[in-house]
Every structure is written in C-alpha cells, then in structure tokens.
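Support case: 2'-monophosphoadenosine-5'-diphosphate complex. Customer-provided input:
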Amino acid sequence: MTINGSTRLFAIVGNPVHHSLSPVMHNTAFQALNYNGVYVPLHILDIQAGLQGMRHLGFKGASITVPHKETVLPLVDEVDEIAKEIGAANTLVFTPSDIPGIGKVKAYNTDWLGSNHALEQHISLQGSSALVLGAGGAAKAVAYGLLRAGAKVTLCNRTQSKAEELAQALQCQWIPQEALAACTGDILINTTTVGMTPNVDRSPFPATQLRYFQVVMDIVYAPLETQLLKDAREQGCKTIDGLAMLLFQGVEQFSLWTGQKPPVQLMRQALIDALPA
Ligand code: ATR
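Agent response - structure generated as follows:
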C-alpha cells in the first residue's frame, strides 16, 4: 500500500493501547480491499485534547477504548441513539470539512452488535435466557444487545451492588454469586477478566454446571481457549472465543467508516496470527 496525500487516517484511542489487536485487524482489511487508509494506535491520556487533535489532523474514524468510552460522549457533535442509551461509545466517524478542525464527529457503539453477531452464529437470541458474568462496561454492552434481541438476561458480579445497579438500569434480573452453582440457561457469557493470562487456570463458573447451557462465550482472548471454554467444550457446549466479539465490533466499525463489505475471515485470521504465542 502506498501512503500518499489521499490516505485516510484511522486510530484506536485509549490508555493503555499498545496491546491492541485492532490495528492489525483493520489494516489487513484496508489492504485486502485496496482501500487507501491506515490505522494506528494512539496512546491518549486527555481525550478532549486528543479529539481536538484528530479533528485538526483530518482523521476519518477512530475506535475508542478504555478509559474513554464514556467520557468521549459529551465531546462529540452527535451521539447515535443506541450509544446514548448504553452510555458509551467505541466508534467515532468524522465528517471532514474543507477547513481543518471544524469537521463533525459522530459517536456510535458497535460493541453490542459485535456480541450479538458472535452469538447469533450459534443460537437464536429471541426468547433465549442468558447469564452474563460481570457488571462493567463490556457487560453493559453485551447485556444491552441481548435484551434488544429479545433474550431474558440475568447478571451476576463479584461486587453485588454493581450487578444490582446495572440490572436496574437495564431492567433485567441479577443473582448473587452464591446462586451461580445452581444457575441454568441457554447462554453463558463471561465479561470479567477471570481466566486471563497469567491466571489461566481460573474460571468464573463451576465446570459441571456448564452442562445446563447450550452456548458459552468468553470475551477474554488471551488465552484463546480459556479454562471456562475448555470446561464448556468438555461439557458438550458450543463455545465462542474472545476474538469473536472483537472481530464483529470491528467489522461493524469498518462498514461505518468505509461503506464497504469487510473481509471478515481475513480479519479473524489477522487477529489469530497477531495473538501472542
Ligand atoms: P470492562 O469495561 O472490560 O467490562 P471493567 O469495567 O473494569 O472492565 O469490569 C471488569 C469486570 O470484571 C467487573 O465486573 C469486575 O468485577 P467487580 O465489579 O467486582 O470489580 C470483574 N472482575 C475483575 N476481576 C475479577 C475477579 N478476580 N473475580 C471476579 N470478577 C472480576
């Protein structure tokens, strides 16, 4: 690819950001479609200054990650209705102007779509029952997507008050951690960091209870097969690894930015190739 005066600029903005797999995923897609774009990681502490810089530099799009997903909302010109409802954005689309610095920025959330698409490859969400472990930002997007698709959602979190609070905001159920051992449903999703490298032997859910679920998804992708997914496979569940949500939220971003059909399989392979050994 030749970088020239017409190259469109994209970035992932966060703190930290050096570990992100999004650059390899999006740059692979740009190259495959011969799209004149480049996507870089930007370690930005002050999102207000960072956004202003991107406006002036003529960026076309950005992914927003921790800790800026919520704080970016009041800084943009327009917030998509769903991002408003979720209270967080992971995607920015810039509409450039001929005068640098005054282009418009709109914020979207594709995290919930990523999670829904990953699940819908394996199960119909309408009418299903789902248990979501965790009550942070990822849990919020996942649970929102499930509810929007017509699933019944139950939340469970180490800090119970956060599960209660999120359940109230989303109008869904929650259970205390002690109730996990007897919990059943169609779908189980882990949105906590439990099982992530280096604590690879840990799982957020009792292994033998997994047999009462059809589909188990983990958003942890290091390692790709977490202890939870290994247990779930052994109990006969369909498993969805942590690259799926990352992939599909990125696929949606790519469509928003370029208006083109993303090369999904190539993007997934690029993610797998980029995973630390
Ligand atoms: P994210 O935006 O990725 O969801 P987050 O908002 O920091 O990140 O949320 C992390 C989630 O993982 C929380 O639900 C957290 O539980 P607490 O609310 O009790 O902190 C959960 N989590 C992190 N480490 C955990 C652990 N060792 N055991 C259980 N839950 C854990």
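The two ends are 27 Å apart (CA to CA).

Case will auto-close in a few days if no follow-up is received.
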